[in-house]
Amino acid sequence: MLSVLKAAYSGGAGKVLKQRRICTLSWRTVVVALALLPAAVGAPPTDSMEQRVQPCIACHGEQGIDLESGYVPRLHGKPAGYLYNQLVNFREGRRNNRAMVIMVSHLADDYLWEMAEYFATRDVPYPPPASPPANAQLATRGRILATEGDPARDIPACQTCHGERLTGVLPNTPGLLGLPSHYLAAQLGAWRAGTREAAAPDCMHAIAERLTGMDIQAVSLWIAAQPVPADTSPIAGPVAEPPMECGSVPLPGQ
Ligand code: HEC
Ligand code: HEC
User: Fold this and answer.
1) Which one, 15, 125, 210, 253, has least CB within 10 Å?
2) Cβ(251)–Cβ(84) below 8 Å
3) Are 251 and 86 within 8 A, CB to CB?
4) Nearest CA residue ID for atom 33, ligand 2
5) How many other β-carbons are positioned within 10 Å of the β-carbon of residue 18?
6) Interval 172-181 mean pLDDT
7) Which of 26, 63, 103 to mutate to test the pocket of ligand 1 (most atoms within 8 A of CB)?
8) What's the pLDDT tens digit per position in 210-246?
9) Which bin fits 65, alpha (ψ -120 to 50), beta or left (φ > 0)?
10) To the nearest 10°, the Cα dihedral for 64, 79, 28, 111?
11) Is 10:101 a contact under the CB 8 Å cutoff?
């Protein structure tokens, strides 16, 4: 058991949860591991959905939890298809955060889908946006990438897929608001480095490869500073005329 707990905080998770934070979060991990153990060994779940997701919320919070060195993203209100894709991605090795891999490695598709649907239907206010980037050049470059893209380098505007309000598009494209710039930048960097993948064709990998380090910084800072609109719900989709094809694992029932 102890080795499972230690493993949850090493590897991928260690990048996000710095050493000194491990101690302050370790009680959560104990709760998590104990609560998930019956599911992990295949016992039929007898709990309510609220009980089942308690361990998830202990780590993720309702609005996400910002650590000095990283971020545990919010789950509430994201499209169910997107959340389900991520849970399967962790289980099948396309995303490699160690704690998350341990969380889902023994869970069946239906169980993952039920949790994805649960979080998708929660409506929790977003945290306030960050301050705009102090560097005007970065701010301008970030805005242009998000709203117009860079046709010369074949980079489509983020808004074309993530929605005009950047609140996501059903069924599989997440909103980008309410996420701090260092989380956004870490995800784009991971795609570029090949340590985060999505189901093929992996459009975000192709896009991240076309972004420079400065672009990643600019677009992440700009997005994190956008005010959260009154209506944060994802747009009914799918994305009209997507500039590139994006893959998804088959959703249950498809
Ligand atoms: C020990 C802490 C921890 C626990 C417990 C935990 N998570 Fe996570 N989760 C994370 C971290 C850290 C990330 C970000 C990983 C990364 O950067 O790739 C993450 C990412 C995710 C993502 C991807 C979100 C996105 O926007 O891409 C989903 C979905 C998710 N977790 C669902 C769950 C569910 C469901 C549970 C409960 C069964 C759970 N998590 C329990 C730490 C945790
Ligand atoms: C062609 C459509 C498309 C375009 C254009 C696009 N995205 Fe995405 N993006 C997606 C899809 C689909 C996903 C979900 C991928 C998955 O399943 O992991 C995603 C996921 C992401 C995530 C992960 C969010 C999280 O919670 O972990 C980030 C960050 C992101 N995109 C940033 C951007 C930025 C910045 C741009 C503009 C430079 C952009 N995207 C342009 C389709 C697109």
Assistant:
1) 253
2) yes
3) no
4) 158
5) 12
6) 95
7) 103
8) 999 999 999 999 999 999 999 999 999 888 889 999 9
9) beta
10) 180
11) no
**Distances, alpha carbon 1 to alpha carbons 8, 26, 118, 223, in Å:** 11, 13, 28, 40
- Gap between the Cα atoms of 66 and 180, Å rounded: 8
pLDDT 10s digits, 4-21: 333 333 333 333 333 323
CB 221 within 8 A of CB 157: no
Q: Is the CB of 95 under 6 A from ligand 1?
A: yes
Q: In percent, how much of the chain has pLDDT > 90?
A: 75
Closest CA to 40 of 101, 130, 95: 101
Interior angle at CA 75, CA 72 and CA 77, nearest 5: 145
AA letter at 186? A
Label residues 79-117 b or e (16+ Cβ within 10 Å = b): bbbbbbbbbbbbbeebbbbbbbbbbbeebeeeebbbbbe
pLDDT at 23 over 50: no
How far does the chain reach from its first CA to its final CA, in angstroms? 37
For tokens 């060994």, name the residue.
41
**Residues with beta carbon inside 6 Å of ligand 2?**
73, 82, 85, 145, 156, 158, 160-162, 172-174, 176, 184, 187-188, 198, 203-204, 207, 219, 242-244, 246
Rounded to an integer, what distance in angstroms lies between the CA atom of residue 171 and that of residue 184? 20
Q: What are phi and psi of 171, to 5 degrees?
A: -95, -15
φ/ψ region of 61 (left if φ > 0, alpha if ψ in -120 to 50, else beta) reads left
Contact 249, 88 (CB under 8 A): yes
